[in-house]
Amino acid sequence: MKSWSIFLSFLFCTTLACAACAALAPQSDDSPSSQPASEKPVYNGSVPIASLSPDEADLIKNLQAKNNAYQDVKGLVTAKGWRPLVCDQCKENVVGGDYEEVCSTNPNSPACKICDSLPELNSCSGDGYCLMQFHSGNSKLILKVGTYGDYRDAPNLMVTGWGFYTKASD
Length: 170
Hints:
- There is one protein chain.
- Strand 3 and strand 4 (129-136) form a beta hairpin.
- The chain has 6 helices and 6 strands, in the order αβααβαααββββ.
- The protein is an alpha+beta fold.
- The chain has a domain at 49-166.
- Strands 1, 2, 3, 4, 5 and 6 form a 6-stranded antiparallel β-sheet that branches.
- Residues 1-19 form the signal peptide.
- This is Secreted protein.
């Protein structure tokens, strides 16, 4: 129960950080926004699968059947055509506000390289929780996957939760 509470707190804080990043980030018209200004949950365990498209429902059923290994979930998601949702603020979210200085003096730091290694990475906390995001070309959905573990050892990251979100109508 404690790990669930920690994940929800992390997800809430990360969502707030993402909303703040979206307000500051320039948006391009040719790609989906990596930081939607406002999002609403579409499926987080409480919305009926029947309200989603057949492809989305199929993905949810497959995600529910998977174990908690992030590499397995990532493989399933990418095999279904979902792509990493690159966050322009990843280094700032992972390394900190002074990431340019930190990464210029220590460019081989794992924290400075991880956003390139895991393009779906949005942010990580100091205690091992990370948020990964994917988008589908066939819908406006964003899949957010919470993980726990040492991001430098991506094959051993464990999934702590996931949910589908869509940008709220403007």
